[in-house]
Amino acid sequence: MKAVVIGSMNMDFTMDVDHLPSKGETVPAVRLRTSPGGKGLNQAVALARLGAEVLMVGAVGNDASGKVLLGNLPKDRIPDFAIKTVDDSTGNAFITVDSQGNNTIVVYPGANYKLDMHWVESFKGEIESADFVVLQMEIPVETVIASIELAHNLNTKVVLNPAPALPLPDYVYTMVDLVIPNETELALLTGETNIVEGARKLLQMGANAVVVTLGSEGCFYKDANQEISVEGFKVNAIDSTAAGDAFIGGLLTALGRHEDIGTAMKFANAVGAITVTRPGAQESIPTYEEVEEFLRRREP
């Protein structure tokens, strides 16, 4: 299975705290970690570790963080020729993680906002030959929309992770094969707090199918013909960073192996469950073999 990921690349600065700070509160961090991140790159790494052939289209700055991000790509067999180096800081994410694994994230986009359509169009051939093009919302919205249009016109399936949630014209959703929001993003996009109603509204806006991630509760799927709920796996969570990105990698690689949607959702839940038991972003994402072993141990 081939995937092109068009999206963000960040250096993550993660601080472990006893509890997340309230407004005006200062809390001490017990640990500071730096690691590669960004929703786009996290999803590319997840896809690669789970067996996909991946091209990452993104941008980094001409700085130390950018060099680290580029230097890490070969470990996951991700080529660097589609990464643009620009005169700006590499994107940064500042993450706090509490003792229950909950987090808050502040992102400085930096070079990610220099990812323009002229650069994306350089890889039209790779996009046309891919099974999926995967996008998020941490790059300019104009680039997201134009990339969706390009992939759709090339008859490549489009997957949109609307994170962070930003309003898009309804016509954009008519070109999206699968939208994957979490509960919060679904509510922001549709105004619906009910998962089923929110998914229905995204379909009315034009999306072909919707998968809503529900954290430890699992996930929910809806298209014009069916609704499927799959329960999550109970694990001891220590850090939820990148769990949603890992889920997306799991779902798409399973679909790429022609699994039915229910089986793919179960596999994706397992990927996310393993991820939250480990600290960090990309370093927490499992391999295909690790997921298979996890599922074998969970079989009755």
UniProtKB/TrEMBL annotation:
ATP binds at N182, T213, L214, G215, S216, E217, G218, G244, D245, N269. Residues 2-287 form the Carbohydrate kinase PfkB domain. Pathway: Carbohydrate metabolism; D-ribose degradation; D-ribose 5-phosphate from beta-D-ribopyranose: step 2/2. It comes from the Bacteria. GO terms for biological process: D-ribose catabolic process. Substrate binds at N10, M11, D12, G38, K39, G40, L41, N42, E138, D245. The active site is at D245 (proton acceptor). It is found in: Cytoplasm. GO terms for cellular component: cytosol. Keywords: ATP-binding, Carbohydrate metabolism, Cytoplasm, Kinase, Magnesium, Metal-binding, Nucleotide-binding, Potassium, Transferase. Activated by a monovalent cation that binds near, but not in, the active site. The most likely occupant of the site in vivo is potassium. Ion binding induces a conformational change that may alter substrate affinity. GO terms for molecular function: ATP binding; metal ion binding; ribokinase activity. InterPro entries: Carboh/pur_kinase_PfkB_CS (IPR002173), PfkB_dom (IPR011611), Ribo/fructo_kinase (IPR002139), Ribokinase (IPR011877), Ribokinase-like (IPR029056), Tagatose/fructose_Pkinase (IPR017583). Its EC number is 2.7.1.15. K(+) binds at D239, T241, T275, R278, G280, S284. Requires a divalent cation, most likely magnesium in vivo, as an electrophilic catalyst to aid phosphoryl group transfer. It is the chelate of the metal and the nucleotide that is the actual substrate. HAMAP family: Ribokinase. Belongs to the carbohydrate kinase PfkB family. Ribokinase subfamily. Belongs to the carbohydrate kinase pfkB family. Homodimer. Catalyzes the phosphorylation of ribose at O-5 in a reaction requiring ATP and magnesium. The resulting D-ribose-5-phosphate can then be used either for sythesis of nucleotides, histidine, and tryptophan, or as a component of the pentose phosphate pathway. This is Ribokinase. It comes from Coprothermobacter proteolyticus (strain ATCC 35245 / DSM 5265 / OCM 4 / BT).
